[in-house]
Protein backbone atom coordinates (compact mmCIF):
# COMPACT_ATOMS: atom_id res chain seq x y z
CA UNK A 1 0.00 0.00 0.00
CA UNK A 2 1.55 3.28 -1.13
CA UNK A 3 1.41 6.54 0.75
CA UNK A 4 0.43 9.88 -0.83
CA UNK A 5 2.78 12.86 -0.66
CA UNK A 6 -0.03 14.92 0.90
CA UNK A 7 -0.36 12.40 3.74
CA UNK A 8 3.40 12.52 4.45
CA UNK A 9 3.29 16.32 4.49
CA UNK A 10 0.21 16.34 6.77
CA UNK A 11 1.85 14.05 9.33
CA UNK A 12 5.05 16.10 9.40
CA UNK A 13 3.13 19.39 9.71
CA UNK A 14 1.01 17.98 12.56
CA UNK A 15 4.17 17.12 14.52
CA UNK A 16 6.14 20.21 13.47
CA UNK A 17 3.54 22.95 12.83
CA UNK A 18 6.04 25.69 11.97
CA UNK A 19 7.99 23.56 9.48
CA UNK A 20 8.52 24.30 5.81
CA UNK A 21 7.87 20.94 4.14
CA UNK A 22 8.52 19.99 0.50
CA UNK A 23 7.71 16.42 -0.58
CA UNK A 24 8.68 15.02 -3.98
CA UNK A 25 7.69 11.63 -5.43
CA UNK A 26 11.02 10.45 -6.85
CA UNK A 27 9.86 7.44 -8.85
CA UNK A 28 6.19 8.22 -9.48
CA UNK A 29 5.25 5.03 -7.64
CA UNK A 30 4.04 6.47 -4.32
CA UNK A 31 6.84 4.53 -2.59
CA UNK A 32 10.00 6.61 -2.99
CA UNK A 33 9.94 10.20 -1.80
CA UNK A 34 12.29 12.96 -0.90
CA UNK A 35 11.40 15.35 1.90
CA UNK A 36 12.96 18.69 2.73
CA UNK A 37 11.97 19.81 6.23
CA UNK A 38 13.09 23.13 7.69
CA UNK A 39 11.94 24.21 11.15
CA UNK A 40 13.22 26.26 14.09
CA UNK A 41 12.51 23.14 16.21
CA UNK A 42 15.71 21.63 14.73
CA UNK A 43 17.96 24.40 16.07
CA UNK A 44 20.85 22.94 18.07
CA UNK A 45 19.99 19.33 17.20
CA UNK A 46 22.19 16.86 15.32
CA UNK A 47 21.06 15.66 11.92
CA UNK A 48 20.27 12.26 13.47
CA UNK A 49 18.04 13.91 16.08
CA UNK A 50 16.32 15.98 13.36
CA UNK A 51 15.66 12.89 11.24
CA UNK A 52 14.33 11.00 14.28
CA UNK A 53 11.79 13.80 14.85
CA UNK A 54 10.58 13.45 11.25
CA UNK A 55 10.45 9.63 11.44
CA UNK A 56 8.53 9.90 14.74
CA UNK A 57 6.06 12.23 12.99
CA UNK A 58 5.44 9.49 10.40
CA UNK A 59 4.11 7.27 13.19
CA UNK A 60 5.75 4.00 12.22
CA UNK A 61 4.93 4.14 8.51
CA UNK A 62 8.60 4.04 7.39
CA UNK A 63 9.38 0.62 5.95
CA UNK A 64 5.67 -0.20 5.68
CA UNK A 65 3.41 2.12 3.70
CA UNK A 66 6.41 4.35 3.06
CA UNK A 67 9.27 2.40 1.51
CA UNK A 68 11.96 5.03 1.01
CA UNK A 69 12.35 8.63 2.14
CA UNK A 70 15.40 10.69 1.21
CA UNK A 71 15.42 13.24 4.01
CA UNK A 72 17.04 16.68 4.20
CA UNK A 73 16.51 18.59 7.42
CA UNK A 74 17.69 21.97 8.69
CA UNK A 75 16.89 24.86 10.97
CA UNK A 76 16.40 28.28 9.33
CA UNK A 77 19.56 30.36 9.32
Automatic annotation (TrEMBL):
Family designation: Belongs to the BolA/IbaG family.
What Pfam families does UniProt report for this protein, alphabetically?
Answer: BolA (PF01722)
Q: Which InterPro entries match?
A: BolA, BolA-like_sf, BolA/IbaG_stress_morph_reg
Write the protein's name: YrbA protein
* Provenance organism: Candidatus Phaeomarinibacter ectocarpi
- Extract the Gene3D superfamilies matched here: BolA-like
Amino acid sequence: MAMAAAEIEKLIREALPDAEVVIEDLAGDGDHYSAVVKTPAFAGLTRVQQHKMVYDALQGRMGGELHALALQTSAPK
